[in-house]
TrEMBL record:
Protein name: 2-oxoglutarate dehydrogenase-like, mitochondrial
GO cellular component: mitochondrial matrix; oxoglutarate dehydrogenase complex
Function: 2-oxoglutarate dehydrogenase (E1-like) component of the 2-oxoglutarate dehydrogenase multienzyme complex (OGDHC) which mediates the decarboxylation of alpha-ketoglutarate in the tricarboxylic acid cycle. The OGDHC complex catalyzes the overall conversion of 2-oxoglutarate to succinyl-CoA and CO(2) while reducing NAD(+) to NADH. The OGDHC complex is mainly active in the mitochondrion. Involved in the inhibition of cell proliferation and in apoptosis.
Subunit structure and binding partners: The OGDHC complex comprises multiple copies of three catalytic enzyme components, the 2-oxoglutarate dehydrogenase (OGDH/E1), the dihydrolipoamide dehydrogenase (DLST/E2) and the dihydrolipoamide dehydrogenase (DLD/E3). OGDHL/E1-like isoenzyme may replace OGDH in the OGDHC complex in the brain. The presence of either ODGH/E1 or ODGHL/E1-like isoenzyme in the complex may depend on its tissular distribution.
Swiss-Prot/TrEMBL cofactor(s): Mg(2+); thiamine diphosphate
Region ranges (Disordered): 77-98
One Pfam family cited in the UniProt record for this chain: 2-oxogl_dehyd_N
Native source organism of the sequence: Octodon degus
Main subcellular location: mitochondrion
Keywords attached to this entry: Calcium, Glycolysis, Magnesium, Metal-binding, Mitochondrion, Oxidoreductase, Thiamine pyrophosphate, Transit peptide
UniProt-listed SMART domains: Transket_pyr
Top-rank EC class of the record's enzyme: oxidoreductase
EC numbers on record: 1.2.4.2
GO process terms (BP): glycolytic process; tricarboxylic acid cycle
């Protein structure tokens, strides 16, 4: 902010207005960009003069021996050389003169290229005129900001009026192939150094660079009709007057106003208009706090009275849950785009305060919407992400999200990013907030063009946005619009910015608002009259006043009016699920056999798999014959059976295709044909739903956010994210805390995402051991102290009330059932009417298949999904005992929240002296130990498969079954981790504090596991000894 730039003398003085007066037909850049290798070189830098000299020697010998472009170039320059020789002076040799001309041409080419690469560094991007958008007042020495800088190219003032052949890599000539140097510089200045700064020359693709050059360099491109200007003015009026209205009515309320970047509203609307014109029907937006209410009002077009209601502190919410502050809420709206007269659906995804966290969520939702519509190219559905300058540069999830943008299973075919670059983050100057020149540099990693634009030039902004939308819809790649603006007030309306940015804010106080500047311009040029302008303002003010009047009649708030992803027909009219029954989750035996058979085969012909894999498939076939499943096969059965029922299954995460532990192998690789793969799961049934299994980038925050967004789009899909090891979820903690555990309470939004978190103490060290169950359990919202009312539907109503389900399965069958229950659990009934007709390529419930039908109904099922956290095993994947029989999975069977003791101890419960409750893998250690100590009749072992919501009813039942037994909770985790803190008060509640629940497990610790194998085994031995020492708690009080 202290870096004042003295605007250097520019050569543009005489040029103003010229661009607007010339109507130049567009040149076809495609035909110009290609040619045989020896053609006139388009991008030659300084090092190419020897090549040119070689060409020239060849041409002197035989003009036909070089490409015709060289021929005409040398002919022309020779002619000019001979004309240029001043009278009376000796004529230099033809070769010397031509050589000079060749060098000058090369210099001019370099000069043009310098502007294309570095022009943005001197563009006037800061509306305040005091800051450098690139954080640096340095002026590149190869830009001609003063006459003397021509010397850099060995050119002088005398060369300014000489004509130069233009290379194919510029469009500044319009229909002309030559221009004077003076005009070349003027046009380059006009394109690259005024209110638009273009960064694109790092893009690897020449065609894409040419496209951008043509869009911005062609003379006359930035002309607007008077109608377009009036629309732009009207949009600015709305944007500005909306903020003014809020400021007038609620002067002491936080709203994170847009003042200083009002142009964002017309900017977003232009992107949407242009995209709609190009065929887009559904736009999904993500954005932070700044200007969000304005976007809701003027872009999404949410009813103003509903927005104003949010300012009324007295209104109570009608819906359950915590709700959220008004500048985080989402919205969904289908309407007609007035510019294109086409239908458009706009949704703004709700987000937490955590800046940029919504980015991957928006991308996932967009991908899902594209997937369900069969929109593989992103022609119908697209995303727009709005960012703050400080957050865009500082938050790592931005980078993670960019890296998803071109991955086949994650791409949304291009996103338009808009940065509200108000050159400040809360109280921090950009120079302290980032190390890169611009806040947008992160986008360079994916070759996204970056268009910086001075936000006080509304026409420049609109032009840039229109090109950005066209870019996205032409190349299906990301693009960034950097709106360089200012923040008129403090961080929020209560903040005093002069404490920390005194000079900047002195300038801001002097700054004429953009609306006034633009209105004055249009009035001066006669596009509107002052009266028309004032009427436009009065009209919008009236709209706001009327809505305000209506908002005062409201008695109640509805959070569900702010839902960003409604599921049609999912709820009854009163918002309740349709039924509270829990069907069985088993499937017919022939289905199990069929899935087992496909899972052990290679459905494609002449497909050679690895011999090690053949062994695995043979063992699957063997298990199928024996009516057994291991973990991987149980998962196959669950996925495969859901696919048959039309449920799309998507499994994503690092190395999930094979499985971190090499157990899954859902994608087979031909050992002889490169990149030939086969996914047998997609060969199960003729009309099955599609199965997507995809290895993700090495990201947790980004990818989990993405899958959450994907799961948000439909209740009729099983979407799973698997962590490589369970503890890696902590780098995605924000998605878990801010969206998964709280999303329903804050935003009445349901989501059925499943997290698979490998967990288990196996001596692998502090990392790779614990998936940190304690964290999830601590966030579970079931009340530890309330004695529940055991109604008939207790199991289901408990699920209905909780924020997520936490399970730790001890058997493959249990895993199979819980995955199926995730979809079937639901409160559903067949639906007959009232749903929108599905577009031609979605999953259709009428014909119960995927593919075009054009006659079915959207929203095939009416399920009530709930987030599910599963701690999954590692060593149990191959444990000989960890197998389940078909008997535990066939029709009529279902998920057991608790697996009670059913061995010797169960035969004489009165004799049992100890009942050990446990969950997950430790069960197998306990069984083995019990048997080796000969205590099968005296110690009962009961497993909690579902930990949260806590199965109060079954725990009570089990405790009552063994009235004389001492109750023990055994876990392999340390005492301050795992499940103990969660289960202990709940046991107390259900036992009425009459019997203690003793702890057996590892001691409290700081690290989740030891790195020393021996220490691991010693601590295991120790707690197993305690578990079966029937006198361990004698004399102890609780
Ligand atoms: C992840 C995260 N860290 C910190 C904050 C606190 N915070 C809220 S707004 C803000 C400044 C954001 O600056 P910028 O991205 O430039 O947006 P602006 O407010 O300037 O529009 C900060 C630090 C937050 N909301 N999220
Ligand atoms: Mg900012």
């Amino acid at each position: 902010m202290s870096q004042l730039r003295l605007l250097p003398f520019r050569l543009r003085a005489q040029a103003t207005g010229l661009l607007a007066t010339r109507a130049v037909p567009e040149r076809n850049w495609r035909s110009r960009s290609s040619g045989p290798p020896a053609a006139f070189p388009s991008g030659l830098g300084g090092g190419s003069s020897s090549y040119m000299e070689a060409m020239y020697s060849a041409w002197l010998e035989n003009p036909q021996s070089v490409h015709k472009s060289w021929d005409s170039f040398f002919q022309k320059t020779s002619e000019e050389a001979s004309h240029a020789a001043p009278e009376g002076r000796p004529v230099p040799s033809q070769r010397t003169t031509t050589s000079k001309l060749v060098e000058d041409h090369l210099a001019v080419q370099s000069l043009i290229r310098a502007y294309q690469i570095r022009g943005h560094h001197v563009a006037q991007l800061d509306p305040l005129g005091i800051l450098d958008a690139d954080l640096d007042s340095f002026v590149p020495s190869d830009l001609i900001t003063t006459i003397d800088k021509l010397a850099f190219y060995d050119l002088g003032e005398a060369d300014l009026d000489k004509e130069f052949q233009l290379p194919t890599t510029t469009f500044i000539g319009g229909s002309e192939n030559t221009l004077s140097l003076r005009e070349i510089i003027r046009r380059l200045e006009s394109t690259y150094c005024q209110h638009i700064g273009l960064e694109f020359m790092f893009i690897n693709d020449v065609e894409q660079c040419q496209w951008i050059r043509q869009k911005f360099e062609t003379p006359g491109v930035m002309q607007f009709s008077s109608e377009e200007k009036r629309t732009l003015l009207a949009r600015l009026v709305r944007s500005m007057r909306f903020e003014d209205f809020l400021a007038r009515k609620w002067s002491s309320e936080k709203r994170f106003g847009l003042e200083g970047c009002e142009v964002m509203i017309p900017a977003l609307k232009t992107i949407i208009d242009k995209s709609s014109e190009m065929g887009i029907e559904n736009v999904i937006l993500g954005m932070p706090h700044r200007g969000r209410l304005n976007v809701l009002a003027n872009v999404i077009r949410k009813d103003l009275e509903q927005i104003f209601c949010q300012f009324d502190p007295k209104l109570e919410a009608a819906d359950e849950g915590s709700g959220d502050v008004k500048y985080h809420l989402g919205m969904y709206h289908e309407r007609i785009n007035r510019v294109t007269n086409r239908n458009i659906t706009l949704s703004l995804v709700a987000n937490p305060s955590h800046l940029e966290a919504v980015d991957p969520v928006v991308q996932g939702k967009t991908k899902a919407e594209q997937f369900y519509r069969g929109d593989t190219q992103g022609r119908k559905v697209m995303s727009i992400l709005v960012h703050g300058d400080a957050a865009f540069a500082g938050q790592g999830v931005v980078y993670e999200t960019f890296h998803l943008s071109d991955l086949p299973s994650y791409t949304t075919n291009g996103t338009v990013h808009v940065v509200v670059n108000n050159q400040i983050g809360f109280t921090t100057d950009p120079r302290m907030a980032r190390s890169s020149p611009y806040p947008t540099d992160v986008a360079r990693v994916v070759n996204a063009p970056i268009f910086h634009v001075n936000a006080d030039d509304p026409e420049a902004v609109i032009y840039v946005c229109s090109v950005a939308a066209e870019w996205r819809n032409t190349f299906n790649k990301d693009v960034v619009v950097d709106l360089v603006c200012y923040r008129r007030r403090g961080h929020n309306e209560m903040d005093e910015p002069m404490f920390t940015q005194p000079l900047m804010y002195k300038q801001i106080h002097r700054q004429v608002p953009v609306l006034k500047k633009y209105a004055d311009k249009l009035i001066a040029e006669g596009t509107v009259t002052l009266q028309e302008f004032e009427e436009e303002i009065a009209k919008y003010d009236r709209i706001c006043e009327e809505a305000y009047g209506r908002s005062k009649d409201k008695k109640i708030l509805h959070i569900k009016h702010w839902l960003d992803s409604p599921w049609p027909g999912f709820f009854n009219m009163d918002g309740e699920p349709k039924s509270m029954t829990c069907p069985t989750t088993g499937i017919p035996e022939d289905m199990l056999t069929h899935i087992g058979t496909v899972a052990s085969s290679v459905p494609l012909e002449d497909f050679k798999i690895h011999t090690g894999l053949s062994r695995i498939l043979r063992s699957r076939a063997d298990m199928t014959r024996k009516r057994l499943v291991d973990w991987a096969l149980a998962e196959y059965m669950a996925f495969g059976s859901l696919l048959k029922e039309g449920i799309h299954v998507r499994l994503s995460g690092q190395d999930v295709e094979r499985g971190t532990f090499s157990h899954r192998h859902h994608v087979l690789h031909d050992q002889e044909v490169d990149r030939r793969t086969c996914v047998p799961m997609n060969h199960l049934w003729p009309d099955q739903a599609p199965y997507t299994v995809c290895n993700s980038s090495l990201s947790e925050y980004g990818v989990l956010g993405f899958e959450l967004g994907y799961a948000m789009a439909s209740p009729n899909a099983l979407v799973l994210w698997e962590a490589q090891f369970g503890d890696f979820h902590n780098t995605a903690q924000c998605i878990i805390d801010q969206f998964i555990s709280t999303g329903q309470a804050k935003w009445v939004r349901h989501n059925g995402i499943v997290l698979l978190l490998p967990h288990g103490m196996e001596g692998m060290g502090p990392e790779h051991s614990s998936a940190r169950p304690e964290r999830f359990l601590q966030m579970s919202n079931d009340d530890s102290d309330a004695y529940p009312v055991f109604t008939e539907d207790f199991e289901v109503s408990q699920l209905y009330d909780c924020n997520w389900i936490v399970v730790n399965c001890s058997t493959p069958a249990s895993y199979f059932h819980v995955l199926r229950r995730q979809i079937l659990l639901p409160f559903r009934k067949p639906v007959s009417a009232g749903l929108p007709t599905c577009p031609p390529t979605v999953h259709c419930s009428a014909v119960r298949r995927w593919g075009p039908c054009g006659q079915g109904l959207l929203a095939a099922r009416h399920v009530f999904p709930l987030q599910l956290i599963i701690f999954t095993p590692k060593s149990l994947l191959r444990h000989p005992e960890a197998k389940s029989s078909f008997d535990q999975m066939v029709s009529g069977t279902s998920f057991q929240r608790v697996i009670p003791e059913d061995g010797k101890a169960a035969q004489a419960p009165g004799q049992v002296r100890r009942l050990i409750f446990c969950t997950g893998k430790v069960y197998y250690d306990l069984v083995k130990e019990r048997s080796s100590q000969g205590l099968d009749g005296q110690v009962a072992l009961t497993r909690l498969e579902q930990i949260s919501p806590f199965p109060f009813d079954l725990i009570r039942q089990e405790a009552e079954r063994f009235p004389g037994a001492e109750l023990v909770w055994c876990q392999e985790e340390h005492k301050n981790m795992g499940y103990y803190d969660y289960i202990s008060p709940r046991f107390m509640t259900i036992l009425g504090r009459t019997r203690p629940i003793w702890y057996v497990g590892r001691e409290p610790a700081a690290a989740p596991a030891t790195g020393n194998r021996n220490t691991h085994l010693v601590s295991l031995r120790k707690f197993l000894d305690t578990a079966f020492d029937l006198r361990a708690f004698e004399g102890k009080t609780f």
